[in-house]
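dumping these here so i dont lose them again. two proteins, back to back, each one seq then structure tokens. dont judge the mess
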Amino acid sequence: MTMKRLLIDTDTAGDDATSLLFALRWPGVKLEAITTVAGNVPLDLCTRNALLTVEKFAEGTPVPVYPGCDKPLLRPQLLASFVHGSDGMGESHFPDPTLQPEAEHGANAIVRLVNRYPGELEIVAHGPLTNLAVAYKLDPTIVHKVKHVWIMGGTRHFQGNITPSAEFNFYADPDAAQIVLQAGFPVTTVGWDITCLYSLVGGEDLDMLQQIDTPASHFYHQINRSALQFNREFGGLDGITHPDSITTAICIRPELMTKSARYYVEVECHSEQNRGYVAMDTRPHPEPNPFWKGGPPNAEVCLEVDYKRFVRMLEAMLSGSYGQFE
């Protein structure tokens, strides 16, 4: 079996930790490092939650956790603890982990590891893209050395989850998102539209997951309970949303993504009213004109996902039984 090398860049809250569970527990995956970035909760909590998840579920040598940027490139810090709980983990308030973070900055760790594993390392970024933008500025050659970058961010012609037009990660640091998307990385984006349409787990499927009696399953339901309550009370969504974990699941098993397309993508950074909005040129034959300064496609955009297969992946990961995927 070919080992898949991953680095996850995360603003660790409930579903971010679910994503980490996929990377820590799925056969054939080697999670080389976790870098943390302020987003859902402040950086120290993001780092604590990542260390906690590693301590509980990593087998063998613990995965190193590198704290990164504690605020966006140009803007004030924006947090989403109102969704995920004050601790980011469903108001679980777990005891402090014994593991300690690494001294190296997350952006430096990204640069070092991409150069250490040229053509092998895949990055899953499911927080604001601040760390990855800084890493690119430190060493622009990493765009040609990383195997692939999977980004949870933006939304394709769909409502946002923080404003009517924007998804949280791109809204929190639109300048970083624009830098990364224009840099030339081999990129696939998984937007908030995919979250709502293909990874909202409720009803009988959620009941089934709640019947799994393992430490991973108990942890999953505990850390996602605040988001579940928020979705039901304010989001109009009857279930747990999985924006981050479905992105990692697609990275691990790309056949989960059943339809995608390549578009020219850019992020609105100047209009506060539409800050973080993702403009995708989906026109089949853009006519030349002096008003649009776009370009050739710069990102693969996920359009459809096999929901039932994603639920089976969740079931397999939480139960530890992977037979149907071998």
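---- next one ----
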Amino acid sequence: MKTIAIAGTFDTKGPEFLYIKELIEGLGLNTFTIHTGVYESSFNPDVPNSEVAKAAGTNIEKLAAKKDRAIPMELLSKGMEKLIPQLYSEGKFDGIISLGGSGGTSLVTPAMRALPIGVPKIMVSTVASGNTAPYIGTSDIIMMPSIVDVSGLNSISTKIFANAVFAMAGMVKFENTKKTEKKPLIATTMFGVTTPCVNAARKYLEAKGYEVLVFHATGAGGRCMESLINHGFIQGVLDLTTTEWADEVIGGVLSAGENRLEAAAKNNIPQVVSVGALDMCNFGPYDTVPEKFKKRRLYKHNPTVTLMRTNGEENKQIAEKIAQKLNMSKGKTVLMLPLKGVSSIDTKDQPFYGEKEDKILFTTLKDKVDKSVVEVIDLNFAINDSEFAEIAAQRLIDLINM
């Protein structure tokens, strides 16, 4: 019989957690309760808060004696982050669910992030409709808005809690038993304006016996890819769409952070890198574009996304950053430059066509990369030409087989 872990502050939200516990057990599933609160639980948990505190290298009496709520919460969160993966590896549970406000969410989600991808994780939270990146990170946590505060049982909260329980029950009860052939994993990056390139490269690689994971280069996508590379899942990287660096340098909304483009280099994973969609920086709806950029070349990609054409100085800065990251490589890194355009709207007669701006990007990259560890290849194609895609894919295969 499958078991669902229930983690949370049983001292302050006991009735709410007992409600989902009874629901889960009523579905014929076992429960495994973990108390993350500072004070005594309102019911007897399987894992008391003293064990959580011990995992953090402290004791619960010391934490309870502190008047500053932030310190105990930080330590208990660290204890959970250490304890939960251990309990999962011991077979104590098959999925984990929690409820909370900002504090309860911060307590449990680091532990959820520490679990392997694919382990069911649901967080019902008052902060689920805002910026969830600090809680989810690069994991597969499902965050469900609680609508009302997690405080009491009422006609709204009980419906939301029940929906979360039924979703969790479905995930742990049903498993995909369809067998898939184990193939070497390739990670690649895509944006709407580089889709033809990535689709052609993916088909080429799949025909050669590889499985291709496509990551949408929207910030979260780049971070997820880097995380999987760091965790040893990926055998080769076809990083064709490095547009997240434009947002990082300029201040757009789709940055993947300062560590983008490091994982493959640090882990000596073969990588072919290109400059897809570096002709643009991303903002939200048109009226959210910062005032200082209002007179720049803008393009309404859709009602919620406005693109800004990168200029020469920005391209120089972006190229310097990318070169710095590529130079971390221990070898097996190729930089491919599509001289006729870096996106579908950066070709002749298209709205972001910028021969001068692209030339600055290409020239700076060639000047700054360390040729002893990075091979630079100029190709007289636009990035979405099928020839470019297939050459890039085959070059990655060559690197993997070296």
